[in-house]
Amino acid sequence: MIDDEIRQKLQNIISGTLIEEQEDHCTAIRNLLCQGFGSNPTVKREFESRSIVKEEQARFLKIHAENNKLWIPALAEGSQYLTRGGESEIYLAPDHMHVIKINDAVYYATWTEYFNSLVIHNLLFPGTVYELLGFTSGKDETLCAVLRQPFIEGGQADLENIKELLTFNGFENTRRQDYYNKEFGLELEDMHDENVIAKDDLLFFIDTVFYIMERK
């Protein structure tokens, strides 16, 4: 069950409040975007209409990355390409203890929405926390975030076990592998067995997509 401290932090993210106590790059970029482009979350029906905002944010983030040593022209030597999953290209890091994900945020209407999702993931699933290394250019010069995440070796999780854990934490199964949390107005999509790894009787959520929705 989500404890009171995490519950308050989630409320702050959803309401657009700046998060002062966190010093990680994901939170810092999320705060910058809220300050520069407004903190109101994007609801799903606004996806197409917010494309101009997303382009403006991409230009802002590229300049910020270049000015703050967060621009990554190439991955570290020894990074090994593994696969492409959804919105990310995935590499095994040189230390073989992490994966590197090159993510173009194509599932999100704005970069603010994308970084809200990352910060929410890090709050709820600290065992697979995302660390923002910086930004790079993808295909057609598209802005991409470069993320590092612990490499978890295990098996595919059982769908019923995923459902049981999410239900315990207030997420109702709405259809197929999609979930909704009424308390926070959070939608969590596509929680199938390839996005959750089972290891030592624990579940590790390695790929999540959170949307802040209008509360039902």
What does this structure look like?
- The chain has 216 residues and is of the alpha+beta class.
- It has 2 domains: 4-150, no CATH class; 155-212.
- The protein is built from 5 helices and 12 strands.
- The chain has helices spanning 4-15, 25-37, 51-67, 111-124, 159-168; strands at residues 80-85, 88-92, 98-103, 131-137, 143-150, 155-156, 172-175, 178-181, 186-188, 196-199, 202-205, 210-212.
- The strands form 3 sheets. The protein has a 5-stranded antiparallel beta sheet. Strands 7-8-9-12 form a 4-stranded antiparallel beta sheet. A 3-stranded antiparallel beta sheet has the order 6-10-11, with no helix packed on it.
- Strand 2 (88-92) and strand 3 form a beta hairpin.
- Helix 1 runs antiparallel to helix 4 and helix 2 runs antiparallel to helix 4 (111-124).
- The mean pLDDT is 91.
What layout of secondary structure does this protein have?
Elements: H1 4-15, H2 25-37, H3 51-67, E1 80-85, E2 88-92, E3 98-103, H4 111-124, E4 131-137, E5 143-150, E6 155-156, H5 159-168, E7 172-175, E8 178-181, E9 186-188, E10 196-199, E11 202-205, E12 210-212
Antiparallel strand pairs: 1-2, 2-3, 3-5, 4-5, 6-10, 7-8, 8-9, 9-12, 10-11
Describe the structure in brief.
The chain is α+β, with helices and mostly antiparallel strands and 216 residues long.
